[in-house]
């Protein structure tokens, strides 16, 4: 009985985690855009902790996988974003949108 409950709890936890991350994303984040460099497709973001990849809250630069993702994003804006892991450059933003 105890083993069954543990298995059910683990399955429910995994389903919850999957529902918050889009397909292909390693993790999702929330933060504030400090600076946008459209020429290099880079954003500087002060983000909250990202537990899925064990990152504490910090400010850092991110590359955007597709430059089109920058349209509609402004410095000073609160955003949510998804990260995918690129073998050469590390984590890149796969999608970004204004926080709701």
TrEMBL record:
Statement: the UniProt record of this protein carries the keyword Transit peptide: no
Keyword list, A-Z: Signal
Signal sequence bounds: 1-23
Superkingdom of the organism of origin: Bacteria
InterPro entries given in the database record: CusF_Ec (IPR021647), CusF_sf (IPR042230)
Keyword Hydrolase carried by entry: no
Protein name: Periplasmic copper-binding protein
Lineage: Bacteria, Pseudomonadati, Pseudomonadota, Betaproteobacteria, Nitrosomonadales
